[in-house]
Amino acid sequence: MSQPLEQNATPLPYKIGTEKLVCVTESAANRLRQVLQKNGRTDGALRIAVIGGGCSGLQYKMDLTDGPRPRDILVHSQGVNVVVDPKSALFVSGSSLDYSDDLQKGGFKVTNPNATAHCSCGESFSA
């Protein structure tokens, strides 16, 4: 039986999302945990945003954050947190986040089923 909501319960200023928005691979989760720990943010998250720019018109911006801001969407996947703003969520829905330590094309990579074209360098996309 579920617990009844308290009369004075304050709603969260952000939304809770699922892995349908973005799922994190095991290798990305392991690397993200290392980066968060190294930066003293063990309870932090990776923010994924879509911004204008690049050869194809849109590109990803990723940075560490202490947590979601109002209206953000927080996704817990593979034991780590990812934060996406509502506008970026329209572009990344269904994506996966992976990590590779390849010397030339290593780092965090978003695989996005909504991208209709990519530039030759792989750093930007259009949707």
Short account of what is shown:
This protein is α/β, with parallel strands linked by helices and 127 residues long.
* Gyration radius from CA atoms, angstroms: 16 Å
Number of domains: 1
Determine the number of helices (DSSP H or I, runs of at least 4 residues). 2
The CATH topology annotation reads as Hypothetical Protein Aq_1857, Chain: A
CATH architecture: Sandwich
Share of helix, binned: 10-25%
What would you call the structural class? alpha/beta
Indicate the CATH class. Mainly Beta
Cα end-to-end separation: 43 Å
Order of strands across the main sheet: 1-5-6-3-4-10-9
The largest β sheet comes out as:
7 strands, mixed
Strand portion, in percent? 35-45%
CATH-wise, what's the superfamily? HesB-like domain
Q: Helices and strands, in N-to-C order? A: EEHEEEEHEEEE
- The overall strand count is 10
Low-confidence stretches: 1-6
Shape: globular
